[in-house]
Amino acid sequence: MSLRDQVLRVLSKHETERNPDHSHDPRRRHRSINGDAAIQEEERNQGGTIENPGEIIKSVKDKLVGDANIVIISNGEGYNFRVGDSEFIAVGDFDSQSERVRLFNGAFKDETVLKGVVAHELSHLIFSRVQKKLSEEMSAVNRLVMDYTENSDPFAKNGVMSAEGTLRDEYKKRFPYYDALYDYFYGKHYKELKEKDGITPYSASYWKAHEQGNGSWDTAINETLAEISRLKAQGIKKGIPNIWRGFYREMNSLYKKTK
Length: 259
Hints:
Number of domains: 1
Shape: elongated
Strand order of the largest sheet: 1-5-4
Largest sheet: 3 strands, mixed
Number of strands: 5
Radius of gyration: 20 Å
Helix content: 40-55%
Mean pLDDT: 80
Order of helices and strands: HHHEEEEEHHHHHHH
Number of helices: 10
Strand content: 5-15%
C-alpha cells in the first residue's frame, strides 16, 4: 500500500469511527514501578496520613490544568482490575464523560504518591480534551481531501497535504491539532513510540494488551502519557525516551489552547 493510500485509509477510517467511546476505562490505578505485590497490598490496605491533602491536590491541578472545572473526590477503597494478563488495584480513576476524578485510599499513602496519582488522572483530562479537538480537525481535513479527490489531487504541491499525511504550510494554522499530532498518532513517530512501548510496567501492560488484540492503541498512548505525568509530578525524570518527552510537551501545550 502506498503512503497516499495509507493516509486516505487513516482519514476514512477515522470518519467512519468518528465519536467512538474514548472514555477512559475507570478500572485503572497508579502502580509502583517495581510492581511488587507487597507494595500493591500496602496500597490497598493503608490510606496513609497526609497533612493538608487538599492543598497538594490543588497545587497539582493548578499546575497541570489550571482552573479547569473538574470534580476530584475521595472514594474509599480501591478495586481489582485487569489489563490483558496483568492485574492491578485502583488508587484513582477518571471518567471522561463527567470529567470526574476519584481518589481511593491508596492514593493517600504519602505526599509523593498523592501527587503522582492526581497528575496521572488529570493527564487523562488533557488527553480527552486534546483528542476531541484532533478528532474534529481530522474530520475537517478528511472533508477537504474528499473534495479534492473529486476534482484534483489532494497530494499535489498545491493540495492539502504531502503523501506522508502532513499538511501543506497554508493549512497548518487552520488545523493546529492535526499539524502537531498527526505524526505521533498516525505518521512517522508512531513506530518509534510503539517500539519504546510504555514508560512503566503499568503503561507497558496496555501496549502488550494492544499487541494481543485486547486493547486500543490510543488507550496505550493515553496511559503512557499519564505515567509520564505521574513521574514528573513525583520528581522522576530519568527513563523517559525523548520521543515521548516531545509528545508529552506537545499534548500539554495544545491543551492550553482548548480553554
